[in-house]
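Supplementary notes for students who missed Thursday's class. We covered one full example, reproduced here. Read the sequence, then the structure, then the short commentary at the end.
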Amino acid sequence: MNEKLENWFAKMPVIAILRGVKPEEVVAIGESLYRAGIGIIEVPLNSPEPLASIKNLAEALGDRCVIGAGTVLTEADAEGVAAAGGQIAVSPNTNPAVIARSLALGMVPMPGWATVTEALVAYQAGARYLKLFPAATYGPEHIKGASAVLPMDCKVLAVGGVGADSAAAWLSMGADGFGIGSEIYKPGDSAEQVYQRALAVVTALKTAL
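Structure (token representation):
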């Protein structure tokens, strides 16, 4: 599982965040993302019937893409995501119990952090993908400063108010990847709209990378 995630990160380090997506439309949207060149897909748990969407995505795209959940706040959340076939557990916060449970279930935890203390707590709990959130309020310099003391084998993600236009600035300061939501998907978007938006993000990021 980690290998597939690492391969996608090497190719296109973007997690598409489908907040508000519905189970009946999620597979078509997932296929659009894959066609555009994005293979890591997150369904936040505050979406309608999120576990059904994750299950649908995992069944249709799980062999090609990395599927998981966002807004994973509790151990019970992690258990539900794993049962639905999720492979990543993305959180807005650092909770060592959620990290440990996610790892025990065979998922890759991606906890949120703001301070170096939180990032190191997450790392010590076993997380290797650390999500600065909300990134825009801290700025790229925050990652540059934190990276001086973060272990070399962790990847830092910028999520929250970060998009293709600002990607180069984040990458230059040490960010390894991004979570992008509304720039790629807003509730009600068609699969074709998502494809066009995702393609624009991929094209812009290839230039930045």
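Commentary. The beta strands are 14-17, 40-44, 66-70, 88-90, 108-110, 112-113, 129-132, 155-159, 177-180. The chain has one domain: 2-203. If anything here is unclear, bring it to office hours.
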